[in-house]
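FAQ: What does the model actually see?

It sees only this:
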Amino acid sequence: MNHVKSTFKLLGLAAALISAGAVWALPSDKNETIRGSADNLTVDQKNGVATYTGSVEIRQGSLTIKADSIIIHTNTDGGVEKMIATGNPAKFQQQPEETQGVVTAAAKQITYTPSNEHLLLVEDASVEQNGAVMSGPHINYDLVKEVMKAEGNTAGEGQRIEIVIPPKSGSSSDSQAPSLTPGSN
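And it is asked to produce this:
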């Protein structure tokens, strides 16, 4: 019987992970089937930690998270407190709306905190949408306010923040300026 309870808790944990990542989402994403795969999984139920390792991939609708490992910390109610994806790089991708381009984020470590809807990208971080790219050592993205803050390394030959914004196209269908914020375009 404990095995059955553990299986249901594990499935709930996987569902909570995907629900937490549904901020930059097509409205239909939250209704889509959650699919995940990894080479290994360790669940520490006492401490509320699940560790997925080895080519981890999680999908729900337009949301895709790929990493070498994903560690999920849950609260006593089973909700996700934070998710930490690591890889070379870890990747996050989602389409915010049908009329907007896909938002992609990559870094060696991506931490998502659903309670305040922050995405923290650490080491070789980048965010891209519609050809516009912001990259640097650290990017902190407040998904609610749609505000990105990037920090360069200032010590010695530190890495600086780089921004690339492609020129507007002459055609009327491409006349909108690219945006790095998921809610605008």
